[in-house]
Amino acid sequence: xxxxxxxxxxxxxxxxxxxxxxxxxxxxxxxxxxxxxxxxxxxxxxxxxxxxxxxxxxxxxxxxxxxxxxxxxxxxxxxxxxxxxxxxxxxxxxxxxxxxxxxxxxxxxxxxxxxxxxxxxxxxxxxxxxxxxxxxxxxxxxxxxxxxxxxxxxxxxxxxxxxxxxxxxxxxxxxxxxxxxxxxxxxxxxxxxxxxxxxxxxxxxxxxxxxxxxxxxxx
Amino acid sequence: xxxxxxxxxxxxxxxxxxxxxxxxxxxxxxxxxxxxxxxxxxxxxxxxxxxxxxxxxxxxxxxxxxxxxxxxxxxxxxxxxxxxxxxxxxxxxxxxxxxxxxxxxxxxxxxxxxxxxxxxxxxxxxxxxxxxxxxxxxxxxxxxxxxxxxxxxxxxxxxxxxxxxxxxxxxxxxxxxxxxxxxxxxxxxxxxxxxxxxxxxxxxxxxxxxxxxxxxxxxxxxxxxxxxxxxxxxxxxxxxxxxxxxxxxxxxxxxxxxxxxxxxxxxxxxxxxxxxxxxxxxxxxxxxxxxxxxxxxxxxxxxxxxxxxxxxxxxxxxxxxxxxxxxxxxxxxxxxxxxxxxxxxxxxxxxxxxxxxxxxxxxxxxxxxxxxxxxxxxxxxxxxxxxxxxxxxxxxxxxxxxxxxxxxxx
Lengths: 219, 410
Hints:
The complex is a heterodimer of chains A (219) and B (410).
Chain A: E1 8-24, H1 27-36, H2 39-52, H3 63-71, H4 75-82, H5 92-109, H6 111-114, E2 122-138, H7 141-149, H8 153-167, H9 173-180, H10 185-192, H11 201-218
Antiparallel strand pairs in A: 1-2
Chain B: E1 3-5, H1 16-19, H2 21-31, E2 38-43, H3 50-64, E3 68-73, H4 78-91, H5 100-116, E4 123-127, E5 144-148, H6 158-168, E6 173-176, E7 189-191, H7 208-217, E8 226-230, H8 239-250, E9 256-262, H9 268-281, E10 287-292, H10 297-306, E11 309-312, H11 321-328, E12 333-336, H12 341-344, E13 352-354, H13 357-369, H14 371-388, H15 391-409
Parallel strand pairs in B: 2-3, 2-4, 4-5, 5-6, 6-7, 8-9, 8-11, 9-10, 11-12, 12-13
Antiparallel strand pairs in B: 1-3
């Protein structure tokens, strides 16, 4: 069994939600909020909400899309916002830019919808992140598998989803270590292709463990 | 006399079967840097009310994590609680005639409690307006004070809020149940949801035989759809609107309606609303209006579990934990989009939201026609509660807050 020089350290994360001072009652106000809110707010309503609503695998992508659908009844705009895939972004700035572009294009095309009042207001919040080590490490694929099998949802989310922003790469902690630490690049790619929008955290983890088991059988 | 409450031990491992061992390990990891550090929870009542119910479970769980946590209850005379009750209603937007004497009584009792309560913990959490002025006891140093507001401050009486704000703005942070309830304050404001305990009598699994006995006791037919709203008899819960929605549904489905809530015998307004409800029910043999004892968790649990659809048609709501209770039991819920309900009901994902009697009736008919969608909403709702509205998640939020405060001052 190969042993990595750099060990994988399992950590967990917890988020405190801070209530911001901005809210939106129309699509026009949503656009202004998107342009001016903090990066922590964009993170909260996209990355973090995907983690806390991971069990919704049909039609839930981010808070902005859900509000547009449920409170302004603009299915077409909601669909475009929901289609933005956080895996395509290595920075919040790039994601914000696309969110603004989509809403701005819609408001320009349908100006009469931009000022219509929503049923309920949208409140911009932001996430404050606290991470702590779990005290578990892995140097081999077996230890890595054991660690992943016992992770909480938050820890799995931290390594598999939010890590993309931290790494500033289009990959996740698990794939990054499999490729760099154990030189298992094909496995790393397969893990990175697990669809986090159509899987729950539990089903993503089950797929990941199956991929690891297949690799272990090769040894 | 103010008092320090002793609580019964609740083993954290009891939650592992429901949540998974990883979640318990995570709580222990988050608590590790806080081990032995002192925390005080301060509120104004040891029994009755949602805050005491939550602290009764939260404090022993925190002790399981080796946190040095104490629960202190402030004391007050009848005059103090009369004043704080009128403040409470005024903060909810009810009419209130400002009276200097009220403010003096409020301050006098807070001062008296400052003299008797040992407010020296590293983290002091003050719950609700009653003890808010205890902040005057804060000594210069590194301890942290936060204010947890459990009530809806979206439309407060200006005079009462202006008075309270002078105290609240001196805390290190304030926590609200919904972003809608937050105020413009010079301190950080955090979102803290109320929580249910999956192991409590109100939410634990029940034997099918017991559920059948409860249905038989109240003459409810288990063979036909049961629509249920569990709420005290209060106009803000709109029980009359629920009956009107039921009547529309009844044209298409042979269903029953259960309206169950705490006894209205010692609440003059509740008794009046109960009369209105009975008048509206008009002796319909498929409407069961049930006056439950003040504390009837097993009956509530059984009625929720026996329901086909749970309704929460409130006109105004704080958070509406009865929604989380129903979702935890995998019930499809139709509820009004008010207060904290939209946080729990993500429309078309974890339940259905409505804005009127007709809308409520339509959503109920839709779910009765599409039981497979009702099942999916109930399953999603259960997961949503598991992720965000359980007592263990609340404990995690507190740990995160304390770590954030400690790191900010390090």
